[in-house]
Design brief:
The protein folds into two domains: about 170 residues, 3-Layer(aba) Sandwich (glycerate kinase, domain 1), CATH 3.40.1480; about 190 residues, Rossmann fold. By secondary structure, the protein is of the alpha/beta class. The N and C termini lie close together (about 10 Å). It is globular and about 75 Å long. The strands form three sheets. It has a six-stranded parallel β-sheet. About 40% of the residues lie in helices and about 20% in strands. The protein has 16 helices and 15 strands.
Length: about 450
């Protein structure tokens, strides 16, 4: 142990390092004698690359550029062509795969251009297959792909799709709920990209940013069957109170789907998935295990609480504050020095006009709950941060909460509760030096929460 703030930072960074996409691909894929073997949780599959006339790569998501680099390092010039879109390119370079940036969390024109480019790749693949030239399409998928790759369905503009995304974000919708709606407004999501590549062999390599690793929710499931119906899409908009606020074209498209006048997304059992396989190469639990190892190396007793943390961020924060009290007063669930780890994806229902993300909101709620008279509150440190390095529309991964930061806020006359009500966690922590800034990490497996009591 050094000091708790530094310990929390390093524990987080070691967790993120465990899910470096290049490391994960190196563990999942091997190439021997022209045969590519892909290992995953359900077993392994092998591809004899010599049987294919073409190997094409497509990708979307925050980690897709680094995944592309990792794949190129394995397959080299066996890759004929490829196109991948990411949120940012922090020095990533490929020789065979073209890389591009687009908007996130709200799609922009670059997202639409990326979608058109990948559909163009798919059209080339279908041409190869029609000519009798077998093709392997490798699709690199990670969180953020729903916004980064955006081809609106017929009759829906990009602006209307973006407006719907903004409504769902502000409503506190979960990622599963958001993607259930978005895939029904898309020409490439919900299995439709697999449909575009059919009948070629499609191998999807997936880095999960979704709790429970639901493949149909990660980047809105572009290459897997979609179990979600038009009815579910409408119900989500209604339950989140945004149906009447949604653009007319969106409501019309859903109404047409419900009436059978607009086709639904491909469902389980559809022939478009006859030659499609998916391998999960990394997820939140791997990052948490890396963090757990580092915590123990630094002398903490560590408990990995869950990788499925969800709920309103400011309410979840209270759980960690309660745990700090029990550790300090009763030595449960751990004796000190203690480290509690959790991961997942919480939500924020926007009411104010400030700037922040779900991790900074959670840290601010934790700081607002600190009371120097209560056991554990004076020396605990809490960190909530996104593994991708960007929490919401900010340049911070997350933020810390501690009594030292609480005193700094008081010294500047800042009331954390007022800033919390305005959802302005970023500017609050910027004032008191409580932000964690790592820069884009090149990976994306949800968030991590770290509670330390030295």
């Amino acid at each position: 142990m050094t000091n708790p703030i530094e310990d929390a930072r390093e524990i987080f960074l070691k967790g993120v390092a465990r899910v470096d996409p290049r490391l994960l691909l190196g563990q999942a894929i091997s190439l021997e004698g022209g045969t590519m073997t892909v290992r995953h949780a359900e077993g392994a599959c092998a591809y004899r690359l010599g049987d294919y006339g073409h190997v094409i790569v497509a990708g979307m998501g925050k980690a897709s550029a680094v995944l592309a680099m990792g794949l190129e390092s394995i397959l080299g010039d066996r890759i004929e062509d490829g196109f991948v879109v990411a949120k940012s390119l922090a020095g990533e370079r490929c020789s065979r795969i073209r890389l591009a940036e687009a908007g996130h969390p709200v799609p922009d024109e670059r997202s639409a251009a990326a979608g058109r480019e990948i559909l163009s790749l798919a059209e080339r693949v279908r041409g190869f297959e029609a000519a009798g030239e077998r093709t392997l399409a490798i699709v690199l998928i990670s969180g953020g792909g729903s916004a980064l790759l955006a081809v609106p369905a017929e009759g829906i503009s990009l602006a209307d799709k973006a407006a719907t995304t903004k409504l769902l974000l502000a409503s506190g919708a979960t990622i599963q709920e958001m993607n259930a709606v978005r895939k029904h407004l898309s020409a490439v999501k919900g299995g439709r990209l697999a449909e575009a590549f059919a009948p070629a062999d499609v191998l999807s390599l997936v880095l999960s940013d979704v709790m429970g690793d639901d493949l149909d929710a990660i980047a809105s499931g572009p290459t897997v069957p979609d179990p979600v119906s038009w009815e579910r899409a409408k119900r989500i908009l209604a339950e989140r109170g945004v149906w009447d606020k949604a653009p007319e074209s969106v409501r019309l498209a859903i109404a047409e789907g419900l009436a059978g006048a607009r086709p639904d997304t491909p469902k389980p059992g559809s022939p478009v998935f006859a030659h499609a396989r998916t391998a999960l190469v990394g997820n939140n639990i791997l990052a948490l295990r890396g963090a757990e190892e580092e915590a123990r190396r630094r002398g903490y007793a560590a408990l990995l609480l869950t990788s499925r943390l969800e709920g309103e961020a400011r309410e979840v924060a209270k759980v960690f504050i309660s745990l700090a009290g029990d550790i300090a007063q009763y030595g449960t669930p751990l004796r000190r020095p203690a480290c509690i780890l959790a991961g997942g994806e919480t939500t924020v229902t926007l009411k104010g006009k400030g700037l922040g993300g779900r991790n900074q909101e959670m840290a601010l709620a934790a700081l607002a709950a600190l009371d120097p008279r209560r056991p554990g509150h004076n020396d605990m440190v809490f960190l909530s941060a996104g593994t991708d390095g960007n929490d919401g529309p900010t340049d911070a991964a997350g933020a810390f909460a501690s009594m030292e930061l609480c005193r700094e806020a008081a010294g500047q006359g800042l009331d954390p509760r007022a800033w919390l009500e305005d959802n302005d966690s970023y500017h609050f922590f910027d004032r008191i030096g409580g932000l964690l800034k790592t820069g884009p990490s090149g990976t994306n497996v949800c968030d991590m929460q770290i509670l330390l009591l030295p």
